[in-house]
């Protein structure tokens, strides 16, 4: 049965929407994804970092990005360094906030 919108309408019995015969398993990302991170400024850039597999948590962001890349780069830039990052959860986690504060790294709001 087709509607005016061209969509195919499927009629089911009431209360069977999530019945096994009415659902199809779907994998949206086909095996996971990656996250790529790099820092760029007027005076230079950091190396590109690719997070392979898994979820980027605040702990992983701190250990795999902030400590090996951001902190040394901030030291090279000096007092003018300001971190501009995303507002995604891993970047705003308490552990990240504490790390930035403990190391005197200023974040752009």
TrEMBL record:
Taxonomic superkingdom: Eukaryota
Stated name of the protein: Transposable element Tcb2 transposase
GO-annotated molecular function: nucleic acid binding
Organism, as annotated: Trichonephila clavipes
InterPro entries xrefs: RNaseH_sf
